Amino acid sequence: MDYSYEQPIVVIEVPKRREIIATSSGKMLRRIIRSYSGESYLLELDDQELLNALRLTITSEGQRVPTLADLVLLGKADRIAQLVPTAESGIQVLDGTAVQLNESGVYPLLSVLEQAEGILRNWNRFVELEDGLFQIKIPNIAPRAFREAIVNAYCHRDYTKLGRVRISFEDAGVIISNPGGFIEGITLSNLLEAEPHGRNPVLADALKRIGLAEQSGRGIDRIFEGFLQYGSTLPDYSQSTNTLVRVVLPRIVPDKAFVSMVVQEQSKQGRSLSVKALLVLNALRNIQRATVEEISNIANLPDVFTKVQLEQLLSLGLVETRGSGIHKEYMLDAKVYRSTGEAIQ
Q1: pLDDT tens digits for 235-272?
Q2: Pairing between β-strand 98-105 and β-strand 126-131 as defined by DSSP bridges
Q3: Are 215 and 300 in the same domain?
Q4: Are 177 and 245 in contact (CB under 8 A)?
Q5: Residues 207, 311: one domain?
Q6: Are residues 137 and 226 in the same domain?
Q7: 101-112, pLDDT tens digit by residue?
Q8: CATH label of the domain that carries residue 209
Q9: Which label site among 8, 12, 172, 216 has the fewest CB atoms less than 10 Å from its CB?
């Protein structure tokens, strides 16, 4: 079956029933828009206008009817099972080999996301770091990165294939997988550089506009940022295949000296460091001294981007150099070590 997210669901409903559905959906969408800072102008629309603006309803044969995007996002479980039987989800919580929770079925995306975020709040533990005036609370898994990973799984899953979006909480971290391999043009080596596009653009657009997904479409950046800023092990997509995308979000183990450097610099600039800058800094944290080519290989960045980031980091005083010409090497500035009294791991 060809699932197009602007394709209407062919159902016959009396107008009064559709009005009730629109009202219920409108209330839920408004709550999410307020909670996650979605597009504020959407709050000014009435229920039907809101659904229309998000392309969750369209006109078919003179009537406004829901689209498949509306069904997957907000629909009732029995209707989803009837019309999109491949839209299965599963959530597991493991404690070692003991299964604390194992649920699987056909549910609306917003319901799954709400349940998963509730589990994360109970599952997450925090490490508190003090650095001068800053007190930093670091979670096992960054909630924003977690949400973006789930949104990515649904926006990029292939609804023509059997399988389920699986969210598994395990001792080492969280594993999220979805049916369908990487979209054409996306590989492990260009995840952070490829142009953003997805299999289900209407669904992705609705999620962005209500605030649940990154507005720029670069959700993958937000996933990596949630780990890069703490100098922790990065998300791992290496178990993905041509029929499945699987990301492992490892428990964050923060590097105190690195966190201190990032927090102080971001406070000085009044904004976050870019993902590319954090990738370069993390590469230098791991190999301590390297050439542009070596840094590019570790950071999965083209040399030209690495050079630009290194020049900016040099000007900020976060990076220093040794040697010249083809022998020129880069390393984290010595003040990073002096500021905390300990070496970056």
Answers
A1: 999 999 999 999 999 999 999 889 988 988 998 889 99
A2: unpaired
A3: no
A4: yes
A5: no
A6: yes
A7: 999 999 999 999
A8: 3.30.565.60
A9: 12
Domain count, the chain: 3
Report pLDDT for 341.
45
From 215, 250, 285, give the residue that closes a domain.
250
CB 207 within 8 A of CB 155: yes
Kindly state whether residue 207 falls inside one of the protein's structural domains: yes
| Each residue's pLDDT tens digit, 54-70 | 999 888 888 888 888 99
In this structure, of 5-19, 191-205, 275-289, the range with the lowest mean pLDDT score is: 5-19
Pairing of strands 88-95, 164-170: parallel
Give yes or no for a contact between 57 and 65, defined as CB atoms under 8 angstroms apart. yes
- The DSSP 8-state label assigned to residue 193 in this structure reads T
pLDDT given at position 216: 66
pTM of the model: 0.86
| Whether the predicted pLDDT of 289 surpasses 90 | no
* CA atoms of 321 and 324, how far apart (whole Å): 8
Among the candidates 61, 83, 105, a domain finishes at: 83
Same-domain pairing of 237 and 159: yes
Do residues 279 and 223 make contact, with C-beta atoms less than 8 angstroms apart?
no
For residues 17-23, give the mean pLDDT.
50
DSSP H helices, the chain, are 15-35, 47-53, 68-74, 77-83, 109-123, 143-156, 201-209, 219-228, 256-269, 275-287, 292-299, 303-316, 334-340
The residue segments making up the domain with residue 238 are 88-250
The whole-angstrom separation of Cα 312 and Cα 318 is: 9
The two counts, helices (H) then strands (E), for the chain are: 13, 12
Query: Is the CB of residue 50 less than 8 Å from the CB of residue 42?
Result: yes
Cα→Cα distances 182→117, 153, 179, 195, Å? 25, 11, 10, 13
Q: Which of 151, 153, 156 lies closest to 214 in space, CA to CA? A: 151
- Residue by residue, DSSP assigns 100-136 as EEEEEE---HHHHHHHHHHHHHHH--EEEEEETTEEE
Q: Are 340 and 322 in contact (CB under 8 A)?
A: no
133 shares a domain with 211: yes
pLDDT (tens digit per residue) in 140-151: 999 999 999 999
